[in-house]
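Worked Example 4.2. Consider the chain below.
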Amino acid sequence: MSRRYSKYIGITLGLLALILRLIILLNPPTDFDGGPMLAYNFLFFFPMLLGIGILSLIAAIISVRGLIKKKSQNKSLHLLALLVSIPGLLYFLYVLTIMIIFGFMTSESVEKPDRIFNHSTSVVLDNTTLHLTGFNVGDEYENRRIYISSIPYFNDAFEKKDAYFCQGDSNFELYYSIHSDSLFVYIPDSEPMYHYTFPENLDKIPVKAIQLNPKQLDSIRGLKSDKVERFIWQ
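Applying the procedure from the previous section yields the following structure tokens:
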């Protein structure tokens, strides 16, 4: 390449890096879902970022070499090229650092389970045995949930969609009574008995929910009877 144009290589590469940075700014992601975001990163952002880093680094090296040469006739041009390349180089290093830190934090983090087993019990009716399994749920496991199923929760055949469940806050209590053909559970009227959509085997669970207001629940709590039992939380 002619010496006449070689002195402009540094500043040209630095300007190209700035143009790539501008293209990134003008084309932010429009869909942040997993698939589109992955495509945006690997097909656009990462290649552009790599281009910014390479162009800025080459421009900076050429500029520094030109500045340290004693006989260089274009020190002001090399200084300008260095100043132009610095923003792209800093941007590349900044994003790279963020990616490394984020990757380290992600690899070190352990995914928390959505529930923690608390306690379980079983009740025997005339024709079947029902299993009540309590869990602590919520962000800090401060809430309570109880699954009622004909199969033990830890049995391989158990499916959550085929179980009823009752839940509430940290003060939630479940009272129940055993009858010959059904299990009656007494729950707050603010929290109905739930089940997952499209169950297949709920008809095998003979349970009846009786919703009570706070005053009625208080009477159940104060009732001294062998017929009404309380689910024990540990």
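Strands lie at 115-124, 129-137, 143-149, 164-168, 175-178, 183-188, 194-195, 207-212, 228-230. The CA atoms of residues 187 and 211 lie 5 Å apart. Compare this with Example 4.1 before moving on.
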